[in-house]
């Protein structure tokens, strides 16, 4: 693979292994690997309702359906690594902020997000027309409450 003239090679551990072993658990997002630049393009596509650089990749109504809460009230709050998260539901592809007043940190209702095992995190806020990505390699992810701090810093930096 190449990106911007640089050659990208698959990571190999000390024994020369790559990601060739079948996963032990079926997980739609488990084991995904990406670059920050590609993740940003993905988030921009979601923010633009499924379109990126003038090309439609997902239908607008599909993205709307993905970012709606599909959990009944009796299943909320959901427990994640950080603990229970009141005000957060779940869409078809992400956590959905249904009541931002309950969030640790700042945010907007209707925003949606997802986190990875190593404390990676992204969110899309259609109200503020922003997307943000936070990449770390911190295990266990729930030990470091940096998502709320990052989110607050981003929202405090907004100007009209």
What is this structure, in a nutshell?
19% of the residues lie in helices and 21% in strands. It has 3 helices and 11 strands; from the N terminus they run E-E-H-E-E-H-E-E-E-E-E-E-E-H. The protein has helices spanning 36-47, 60-66, 146-156, and strands at 2-3, 6-7, 51-52, 55-56, 78-80, 83-85, 88-90, 95-97, 112-115, 121-125, 130-134.
Quote the distance from N terminus to C terminus.
41 Å
Main sheet characteristics: 5 strands, antiparallel
CATH superfamily: DD-peptidase/beta-lactamase superfamily
Classify the fold: give the CATH topology. Answer: Beta-lactamase
Number of strands: 11
> What's the helix count?
3
Question: How much of the polypeptide forms β-strand, as a percent range?
Answer: 15-25%
Portion of residues in helices? 10-25%
What does this entry look like structurally?
With 160 residues, the protein is of the alpha+beta class. The chain has one domain: DD-peptidase/beta-lactamase superfamily (Beta-lactamase, 3-Layer(aba) Sandwich). It contains 3 helices and 11 strands; from the N terminus they run E-E-H-E-E-H-E-E-E-E-E-E-E-H. It has helices at residues 36-47, 60-66, 146-156, and strands at residues 2-3, 6-7, 51-52, 55-56, 78-80, 83-85, 88-90, 95-97, 112-115, 121-125, 130-134. A 5-stranded antiparallel beta sheet has the order 7-8-9-10-11, sandwiched between helices. Strands 1-2 form a two-stranded antiparallel ribbon. Strand 5 (78-80) and strand 6 form a beta hairpin. The radius of gyration is 17 Å and the shape is globular. The mean pLDDT is 81.
